[in-house]
Amino acid sequence: MPSHALNRYDLWEAIAEALGSLGDMRAVRPLLALDTSQYSPDAVEAALDRLAAVSTDLFVAALDHPPYAYKAAYTLKRLAEQRATPEVKNLLIPLLRHQDKSVRRTAAEGLHGHPPALEPLMVALKDEDGGVRWNAAEALGTIGDLRAVESLVVALRDPDHLVRSHAAEALGTIGDLSAIESLVVALRDPDHLVRLRATGALKAIRDPRAVPPLVEALYDPDPDVGISAAEALAVLSNRQAVKPLISFVVLDSDQLRSRWDKAVARLPQRSEEQYYAETCGHIMSFPVDFIDVRIAAAKALAQLGAPPELDTLVVTLGKVIPSTQYGIKEVNELTHAHHAGKNL
């Protein structure tokens, strides 16, 4: 075989590109039928995109044929993202009721920022498939309509942790105060990602009622949640958080361990942290001295107005945990910026 000869993969890629360039709609069905795991998926997708730009009729018709439905829906979603026109996105709304869950997932994913899809997406939050539900929750957040808040609050109790986490994030994006209590409850969700998204949502909404539960979240078994809680407290700019943050920064290791154990115990029995605490005891990953969380708390104090004792606290933190020196410089810079009256 000559060295310049095309292998099968290259041949099909060349054919797909040619079919897309020709713009002949007779190529739609054969391209949809191709197994892209065997041939060039990028070339096939590009060819289908070109043909969909000419006409969507055959793609809509292909949705009624199971072998072609998902790829047809995916092409329509890509077209909707490229064109960002209501007419194309409207084609995706009926697909939220399609018999194929992969089609429903794709439709929900493609309806970001499309207000006409509000009510169908709220219905999709009750879909039997978790992937459809969390894509719907994410899309509702991008639409930002207050009418979705109640449905998203209900979704915070969904059995799928990804649905709960996307619902929390969506509620933060919408920013309605009526979601505060439910987001506070989500700070004790068994899944760390849900708790992380809940702290982010409370940070976005900026309601002072969130200060006490965010202070408790500093001791979360997952350090990322604690860091997010500290950042949220800084943004809330509430002096109520100053004393608890100071206490957190200067706690010794034994006190931190005790608070951490209590935080684990408060989580539902089905949480991952509870499971490991019961089966492995302290073998589980205790964040050593909460280094990163304590640095985040010190930064929060600086942003809250650099109380006079912060300079001393930073020195104390450095003595208690020498490895925090890498973060103390940044804390000092924040503190000095406040002393100089700069806007952070």
Describe this structure in words.
By secondary structure, this protein is an all-alpha fold. Among the domains are: 8-91, no CATH class; 213-344. The protein contains 21 helices and no strands. Helix 13 (192-205) runs parallel beside helix 15 (223-236) and helix 19 (291-303) runs parallel beside helix 21 (325-339). It is elongated, with a radius of gyration of 26 Å. Mean pLDDT is 82; it is low at 1-5 and 274-286.
Keywords:
344 residues; 21 helices; mainly alpha; disordered N terminus
Kindly report how far apart the N and C termini lie: 67 Å
Low-confidence stretches: 1-5, 274-286
Structure classification: mainly alpha
What gross morphology would you assign? elongated
Number of alpha- plus pi-helical segments? 21
Q: Oligomeric status of the shown chains?
A: single chain
SSE arrangement, N to C: HHHHHHHHHHHHHHHHHHHHH
State the share of residues found in helices, binned by percent.
55-70%
SSE arrangement:
Blueprint: H1 8-22, H2 28-33, H3 41-54, H4 57-62, H5 66-83, H6 86-90, H7 101-109, H8 118-124, H9 130-143, H10 149-155, H11 161-174, H12 180-186, H13 192-205, H14 211-217, H15 223-236, H16 242-250, H17 253-266, H18 272-280, H19 291-303, H20 310-320, H21 325-339
Helix pairs in contact: 1-3, 3-5, 5-7, 7-9, 8-9, 9-11, 10-11, 11-13, 12-13, 13-15, 14-15, 15-19, 16-19, 19-20, 19-21, 20-21
